[in-house]
Write a structure and sequence with these properties.
Blueprint (H helix, E strand, L loop, with lengths): L1 E7 L4 E7 L2 E6 L5 H13 L10 E5 L4 E2 L11 E2 L2 E8 L2 E8 L2 E2 H4 L3 H6 L3 E2 L3 E4 H4 L6 E9 L2 E9 L6 H9 L8 E4 L17 E5 L6
Parallel strand pairs: 1-11, 3-14, 5-10
Antiparallel strand pairs: 1-2, 3-4, 6-9, 7-8, 7-14, 8-11, 12-13, 12-15
Amino acid sequence: MKLSFKTEALSESHTIDVEISSLIVAGWAGRDQHAIEHHIEELFAIGVPRPSSVPLYYRVAENQLTQASRIQVVGNQSSGEVETFVFLAGGELYVSIASDHTDRKLETHSVALSKQVCAKPVAAEAWLYADVAEYWDELVIRSYIQENGERVLYQEGTLASLRPPLELISGFAGKSELPEGTGMVCGTVGAKGASGPHPFSPWNCSTLVAGVL
């Protein structure tokens, strides 16, 4: 899948085209193991199978990536969650954001299949990881949903609650460098209210450190 990003580097801004041939979704990527286990138990109580390992890496068809402003889904039981998205281009690691859109009804049958059937929206901007690595834990990701015609904050949290991308990459690839042509979705922060299917999920990424993003 060919993606195009406007890059915001400290030195300059330009556009890069990237061919993603392998897509990985890193699930259960939080740093707090107690909180992860609690969430696993909550989901298990409503029929979602326990993961075989933590974190767990799901392979998803690369053609599910999209930079379209809208996606189509099957039925009304799906929802998205904002996550960081990392990829290698020209030997440099870049970071953007994406939505791991998932079919919540199918999730009780198979988490892997629930991720496979939904497109994964990706932002059209990216940053050099090296430019933000020092401030990584201070970066904030947010998503919004629509309820009763109003735009409502659904998620907001710093990346300090998630495993660092180099750790996730190492867990998947056995080294701290992501293979060329591979994109990885790196986990999400908790929802402000009850999680579940929602009709609208725009998202953004910002930072607490002025001038970085």
